[in-house]
Amino acid sequence: MNKLSLENSAQITNRGLLILLVFFCSLPLSLAQNAVITGIVLDEAQQPIAGVNITAIPYGTVTNSDGSYLLEVIADKNLQLTFTHIGFKTITVNNLVLNTNETFEFNPVLRADAIQMANVEVSPTGDRITKGITSIAPELVRKIPAANAGVENILKLLPGVYFNNELSTQYNVRGGNFDENLIYINGIEVYRPFLIRSAQQEGLSIINPQMVSKVDFSAGGFQAKHGDRLSSVLDITYKRPTQFSVTANASFLGFGSTLETISKNKNVSSITGVRYRDNSLFVNSQQTQTTVRPRFLDAQSQFIFKVSPTLSFNVLGHVALNNYTNTPIARQTNFGTINEPKALIVYYDGKEKTQYQTEFGALKASILPKDNVKLDVIASAYHTNESELSDVIAAYQIGEVANNLGTTDFGQAVNARSIGAQLSRARNELDALILNLEHKGIIKNDSQQFRWGVKFSLEDFRDQLQEATFLDSAGFSLRPPNTAIPNNQPEEPFTGAIIPFEQVAALNYVKTDRLSAYLQWENRTQWGNHDIYYNLGIRGHYWNSRVENGNNNSHLFFSPRAQFSIKPNWEQDALFRIAVGSYKQPPFYREMRNFRGIVQPSVQEQRSTHLVIGNEYSFQWFSRPFTLISEAYYKHLNNVNPYTIEDVRIRYAAANIAKAYAYGVDLRLNGTFVPGADSWVSVGYLKTEENWNNRGYIARPTDQRLKFGVLFQDYMPTIPNLKLYLNLIYNTGVPGGSPNYEDPYEFQRRLRDYRRVDLGISYILADGNSNRPKNHWLAVFKELDVGFEIFNLFNNQNSITNTWVRDVESQNQIAVPNFLTSRLFNLKMNMRF
Predict the structure, then answer these.
(1) Distance CA 34, CA 289 (A)
(2) Which residues are CB-contacts of 395 (< 8 A; sequence separation ≥ 6)?
(3) Distance from C-alpha of 145 to C-alpha of 671, rounded to nearest angstrom
(4) Euclidean distance between CA atoms 58 and 87, whole angstroms
(5) Global pTM exceeds 0.70
(6) Cβ–Cβ < 8 Å for 52, 69
């Protein structure tokens, strides 16, 4: 196909996207390029093998003395990758399709009796698809623009994953909440801070995208080897360095650096990342005038020690310090209708200071007593020390907004009247220590695998909550509406004490012991000419919670799970999948703490039954690969512990008083809409409701009905190094909560829909395909690119919560939206040596 015909076909293919995204019309398409396959070839003793012939016809190469190789191949075409060496059996990977400029790392083990890896189904980014796992290319994680760029940003573009706050790395999956998602790094469970109430305070995710080599995600129906949560699993694998490398990146939001090292004998390797981030650019774009310094710093390292062919150690460490200091000054929020616009004007005095300091360390020993047996022993510790100190006075007015064009006061508040003041005070401190000791094992026998695991955890929480809110209107201090003290002012003087309108005061000491285990059997076989994969497993979990000066609580449960996949021997490339299982979530500390901050030790596990039916259909469109992935799901929940969400703060009822359900459909079309660049379009529909004490079903706080997401990549045909990255999100609004002390059955008002587009443009000065003379100034760089990002391209006004303004005179409570960030511009640079 010549250049002209290729560009014409690409333009025809892209017309659908031009209708959806008008501004794409100025971004022409480009020609397909190459991709790179790299890695280390090892023998059964985990030693590198030199002289291995590697072919992907018509390309080929040979491993070096250290077993490493690098093979450049054409992108966007099916390849058969073959590894051959005298004395070893041949290994073959079929149906391998790589994207332009993608680097696919594959480290095979050659055996004297190696299994032929025939018919391995590989997605366009090189990952298996038979187990209901979505695999995401690490390069996408590092390149796609967002206010909080990283792994979680990419997840939010998938169907079934919902959010409505760009400053947060937290997410909801298919009707669940933030606490229902499992996160693993190198098979080790990791945690988030507990006291965070605002996404402005959140800072950096524990996952460093520069250190990631593999991202797997399951939105439901996951296997028994994963833990006891209700919604999803995010499984991250960090890089195993193959050469010395230094990476650095910088932007208006902060900077970071990553160092990769490996010893001469390849037995010791390390990767270390340091990041600093300052979110002032985002926070200062909001409607509150403030002097704010949200600063976040973290460092993490992974060390791999290969003691012998059968024994290796993996050490992972992480330290993070989040400092958030805010001195608010004033705020004006315009709301209401076009005919009756209103404004809330607030004047502040005081300061809030939040600090989270966390340390995490893990040691993993891997033993290979036999060729087909692997044993892991993992010890980990997580410690967090968190404090929230706040004294803020807010005097607020409500007025009309001048809406006459041409007047000097257009858009300003007029006829404002003082309706109240509020004093918010907080003295919250939490100290938590979590210790884990775990063993995992796996035995492989041809196409079968048997897995097992056992884990013991000790959790120790020491928590002090001291929060109070005093309200005043026209000089009167407002008492809580549920107090029974008579007040006959002004006829009779009131001499009662001034008490907070809202107050939380608690001192909690909670310890929990947990013992969990799982067994899992996997098999891959054939039924006639059809490929079959199935998985059967069961988990057991026992926990015992001890509350100081309170009652103890213990419980035991089991969770069976199963998956079944079939790939018919059809001319069309299709895969069908079904998963069913029981998922139970024992209460973590925050789930045992009620709205008043008091721990309720009688809380039991929440229970959910998942049914997921999925299909994947791969096809060629304009000679380029595409995959349509669809899933329908239903979740039945009982023993539910209801909660409310305000910004990113979750508060539980700490009582199993509800039942619920969630169902929906997720669709994702993935492929090379533009030659050589992987993109996708996702659509999701969700409905989730709960029933408190048989009062009837109402929408859950995460009932976000419709999701539409686009991840798009493009580049110029005449300047192929000029790249474009775009993500587009549309989510319908979630229930916006209710005023305090009010029944949620009386308030089902929803927030406005969430709409956002982030755009990034980069120019690649050097990459892995660059061949420059040694005296060229770019020869020192393995990678170098510069660019800019535009966040919230169309400057949409999204809101995260409502502020409920109380007016004693009118006896009304007015919902005033709290808007998120506006349009912002960011410069960035990335380099690797």
Answers:
(1) 49
(2) 346, 347, 418, 420, 421
(3) 19
(4) 24
(5) yes
(6) yes
Cβ–Cβ < 8 Å for 770, 799 = no
The residue length of the chain stands at 833
Q: Are 194 and 430 in contact (CB under 8 A)?
A: yes
Q: Which of 53-57, 183-187, 188-192 has the lowest mean pLDDT?
A: 53-57
Strands of 103-105's sheet in order across: 68-74, 34-40, 103-105
Please report the pLDDT score of residue 652 as a whole number: 93
Statement: residue 126 has pLDDT above 60 = no
In this structure, what are the phi and psi dihedrals at residue 608, rounded to the nearest 5 degrees?
-145, 140
CA torsion through residues 156, 159, 161, 166, sign? positive
- Assess whether pLDDT exceeds 70 at residue 59: yes
Q: How many CB atoms lie under 10 A from the CB of residue 778?
A: 11
Query: In this model, does residue 316 exceed pLDDT 50?
Result: yes
pLDDT score, position 397: 79
Q: What is the pLDDT of residue 23?
A: 34
Please report, as a single letter, which amino acid is at residue 799: S
DSSP 220: S
pLDDT at residue 194, rounded to an integer? 87
Q: Backbone phi, then psi, for 771, in 5-degree steps?
A: -120, 100
Look at the block and give the residue holding tokens 């209710």.
738
3-state secondary structure 165-207: CCCCCCCEECCCCHHHEEEEECCEECCCCCCCCCHHHCCCCCC
Instruction: Provide the mean pLDDT of the chain.
Output: 83
Query: Two tokens at 474?
Result: 């026209």
Tokens matching residue 14:
């892209």
Range among 193-197, 594-598, 684-688, 764-768 rated most confident: 684-688
Helix (H, G, I), strand (E, B) or coil at 7: helix
Q: Of 191, 213, 221, 328, which is closest to residue 269 (Cα–Cα)?
A: 213
CA terminus-to-terminus distance, the chain: 37
Q: Which tens digit of pLDDT belongs to each residue from 650-664?
A: 989 999 999 999 999
The answer to whether 364 touches 377, Cβ cutoff 8 Å, is: yes
Residue 116 carries which side chain, given as an amino acid letter? Q
Q: How confident is the model at residue 591 (pLDDT cuts 50, 70, 90)?
A: very high
Best CA proximity match to 82, nearest among 91, 73, 95? 91
Which one-letter DSSP state was computed for residue 598?
A: -
Q: Which amino acid is at 806?
A: R
Q: Which residue has the tokens 């000419």?
A: 529
773: confidence class by pLDDT, cuts 50, 70, 90: confident
CA dihedral 150, 156, 158, 162 (to 10 degrees): 160
Q: Where are the beta strands (DSSP E) in 528-646?
A: 530-547, 552-567, 573-585, 606-621, 624-640, 643-646
SS3 715: strand
CA distance 485 to 490: 15
pLDDT of res. 2: 42
Residue 763 CB-density burial (10 A; 0-12 exposed, 13-18 middle, 19+ buried): middle
* DSSP code for 107: -
CA distance 668 to 676: 19
Domains within the chain, CATH numbers bracketed: 1-27 (no CATH), 31-120 (2.60.40.1120), 134-431+452-481+509-823 (2.40.170.20)
SS3 at position 437: strand
- Cα atoms in the Cβ-side hemisphere of radius 13 Å centred on 432: 26
Separation of alpha carbons 787 and 781, rounded Å: 17
Distance CA 207, CA 298 (A): 10
DSSP helix/strand/coil, 629: strand
Report whether the peptide linkage leading into residue 58 is cis, meaning its omega lies within 30 degrees of zero.
Answer: yes
Percent of the chain with pLDDT over 70: 83
Helix%, strand%, coil% for the chain, nearest 5:
5, 60, 35
Q: Which amino acid is at 658?
A: A
Q: What is the rounded distance in angstroms from the CA atom of residue 128 to the CA atom of residue 138?
A: 15
